[in-house]
Amino acid sequence: MLFKRKDSKLWWARFTTPNGKRLRVSTGTENRKQAQEFADQLKAKTWNVQKLGEKPERGWQEAVLRWLDETSHKATQKDDIGHLRWLDPYLGSLMLHSITRDILDDLVVRRKQEGVSNATVNRMLAVVRAILRRAALDWDWLDKVPKFKLLPEPKRRVRWLTHEEAARLITELPDHLAEMVRFTLATGLRQANVTQLEWAQVDLERQFAWIHADQAKARKPISVPLNSGVMSVLTRQIGRHPTRVFTYEGKPVRQVNTKAWRNALKRAGITGFRWHDLRHTWASWHVQNGTPLNALQELGAWESADMVRRYGHLGQNHLAHYAENLCQPD
C-alpha cells in the first residue's frame, strides 16, 4: 500500500513481510508509478530473503547508525555528523548497492555549488568512503565499493611566527592570553588541551604534564615535558583556581578566538594567523633548532610521519656540506 506523510511529498510504502513484520519505508520518489515499482521490488526481495535465504539488502541509514556506533571514540565524530546530516536528504532512502559513482559525482557538484572548498568536499567523501568500505569489508553488507577520486587540494604554506613576531604579539595581548600563548609556543599543545588543562595533569616537581587519551585528537595519552619557560608560566598561575590552570577573572578560559586576540594581532601587524598556527610555530622552531623529525613527531603526538614532514624544509642544515661540494676554489 502506498501513502504520503504530512511532512513529505514522497510516496511511502507499507506492507507486511512473510514473517509478519510490518514495514514502512520511503520510496524516495514523488512519482506514484515509480513508487509502486519500488514497493513491488522491495516486497519481492523481502520474500526472497525470508523464504529463500538470500542476503538482505541494507540501507544507507542503517549503515550510518552502525558506523557512528562503532566510531564513537573518534575525536572528529562531530564533524562527521555534520557531513552525514548534509548527505541524508540525498542518500537517506537509498540501499547501499544503489550508491554509484554517478550519484557521488552529483553530490560533489551540489556541494561545490554551495561555495565550499575542495577540502570540505573531500572530508565529506572520506566519510562516505569509510562507511561503504566498512559495509563491504567488515560487515559483508556490500559486494563492492564504487571508485571515486578526491578533489585536488592546494598545498597550504605552514604559517608560523618568527621569534620577533611572537614577542610583539605577546606584548599586545592581555595577560591571561599572553600566558596561554607562551605556554603553547613552548609545548605545542592544541587549543582545547591548553584551555582545559587541570592542575591534576601537571607534576611541577618532575616538570612534566600529560594529556589523557580521551582529550587527545589521536586518542592516545600525551606526555608533555615542561621547560624552564613553561615552569615560569605555571608558577604564575598557582592559586588562581582550584582545578583549572588558565583562568580569566577567576573563571576557566573557554574561548581564545576573542576580540582581544584579533585586536592584538592587528596591532602587532600579523595577518592570516590563527590560534592553531601557534602549534605550527612551535614545530617550526623545533626543526630550525635541530630537533629530529622523529622526535618532533613524538613530542607533537602526530600519528603519521607525513604530518611532520611538512616542517622538514625548515631545517636542512645537514645538507649544507653537500652544497659546498660544488664550490670552486678561487
From TrEMBL:
GO molecular function: DNA binding
Alphabetized UniProt keyword annotations: DNA integration, DNA recombination, DNA-binding
Gene3D superfamilies (alphabetical): 1.10.150.130, Intergrase catalytic core (1.10.443.10)
Biological processes, Gene Ontology terms: DNA integration; DNA recombination
Domain Tyr recombinase: 156-324
One Pfam family cited in the UniProt record for this chain: Phage_integrase
Domain Core-binding (CB) intervals: 58-136
InterPro entries reported for this sequence: CB, DNA_brk_join_enz, Integrase-like_cat_sf, Integrase_catalytic, Integrase_recombinase_N, Tyrosine_recombinase_XerCD
Family: Belongs to the 'phage' integrase family.
Name under which the protein is recorded: Integrase Int
